[in-house]
Specification:
There is one protein chain. The longest helix is centred in the last third of the chain and has 21 residues, at 285-305. This protein has helices at 13-20, 25-28, 32-36, 64-82, 108-116, 125-135, 152-160, 174-188, 205-210, 213-231, 237-240, 285-305, 334-349; strands at residues 6-7, 41-42, 89-91, 140-142, 164-167, 192-202, 244-251, 258-268, 274-284, 310-311. With 358 residues, it is of the alpha/beta class. It has a 4-stranded parallel beta sheet with strand order 3-4-5-10, sandwiched between helices.
Length: 358
């Protein structure tokens, strides 16, 4: 397996890892030579989509379509240089500013026209990466909550090219450990919820980008969607019909990559008696996310080899805002999601699901 990528800064992988201070130097030095050999390609970047970042190692393109063509060439060059038969492209970059679906996203023809017309208001850099990957027959994984491949145009393109797509927004910290675990438990035991307050403190570049309200909006929408889908308030209005759900992310540089997630949950039980749950999770953001990224790459490649294309709903287990089309609802229950992963793998090898009544 070979690793490569794009970055808005020219540092090689070893220099970037030392700067991030996620891993200790003694852990990095064991693969120092390999990391120093990974030099990033200039990134497709637009400051307007991540205003807190100022990239110095970026592509010069007159239009979004030209940006796509440069990215496609990068993918071809990477495959040739490393003698790779297959490639998977994964977005592990920053959260872009929030945009809603627009007409330009509703069909492949409209999307391509917007790229060629250089409509930078609705065509984000991440969309350029996604289009380039699909065009080069490479599965694409969206690790941030960006709109990106979560559009009818990209669904159409991925099916046309028979390429898997998945996402979005890696489920690594607060959403994984609390909301997709605790919320299903509350619902299973029919415990009501009055309110759920969530706050995050982090100091890495992710936190810096999310300090901008436009970028935070994208993340907020992703985080807020989780418990509504799990609780189904339309079915259980007495228990979940009036949940006050608040999400906050605070940029605090001294924490660096060590994130603190704090939740206060107001619940009620039999006869309406109130109770509280408070959970404080001090985690390492990238340490939690790295295995998710690797699993998604391996599973996306497997899906491609198995002839699967379009939205990979079975990979919802890894994402806090699972992709879905207009005809389906996303599945957020962690345990149901894990069953989907196992059942998909069983189907691939012709194995039946265990019969627990036998």
């Amino acid at each position: 397996m070979f690793f490569g990528g794009w970055d808005i800064f020219p540092d090689n992988a070893y220099e970037a890892a030392m700067y991030a201070e996620v891993l200790k130097e003694k852990d990095l030095n064991g693969v120092k030579d390999e990391l120093e050999a990974i030099k990033p390609m200039p990134a497709a970047f637009d400051h307007n989509w991540a205003k807190r970042l100022n990239g110095t190692h970026i592509k010069k393109a007159a239009t979004r379509w030209e940006m796509v063509e440069q990215l496609r060439q990068d993918i071809r060059d990477f495959k040739a240089a490393n003698n790779c038969e297959r490639v998977v492209v994964l977005w592990a970059a920053s959260t872009e500013i929030y945009i809603p679906l627009s007409d330009e996203h509703m069909s492949l023809a409209a999307l391509e026209k917007a790229m060629k017309d250089n409509n930078t208001e609705v065509i984000s850099p991440s969309m350029c990466y996604a289009y380039a990957a699909i065009a080069e027959d490479a599965p694409f994984v969206m690790g941030a909550p960006n709109l990106c491949v979560d559009t009818p145009a990209m669904w159409e393109f991925s099916k046309q090219k028979n390429v898997p797509i998945s996402g979005k927004d890696f489920k690594s910290g607060q959403t994984l450990m609390k909301k997709t675990v605790l919320a299903p438990m509350f619902k299973t035991r029919m415990l009501g919820v009055n309110g759920w307050f969530s706050t995050n403190i982090l100091g890495n570049r992710d936190g810096e980008v999310l300090d901008d309200p436009d970028n935070f909006k994208t993340k907020e929408v992703s985080k807020l969607s989780v418990i509504d889908t799990i609780f189904e308030p339309e079915k259980y209005p007495d228990l979940y019909g009036d949940v006050y759900h608040k999400v906050r992310i605070n940029y605090y540089p001294p924490r660096k990559d060590n994130k603190e997630a704090w939740d206060n949950i107001d619940i009620f039980g039999w006869m309406g008696y109130p109770m509280e749950i408070k959970v404080n999770f001090l985690c390492r953001d990238s340490i939690l996310a790295a295995p998710i990224a690797l699993d998604l790459v391996l599973f996306s490649d497997l899906a491609m080899r198995a002839g699967m294309c379009g939205i990979q709903t079975w990979l919802s287990f890894f994402c806090k805002s699972p992709m879905h089309d207009f005809e389906h609802q996303p599945e957020h229950d962690l345990f149901t999601q894990w069953r989907m992963v196992k059942q998909t793998l069983r189907n691939m090898i012709g194995e039946k699901e265990p019969d627990y009544l036998a």
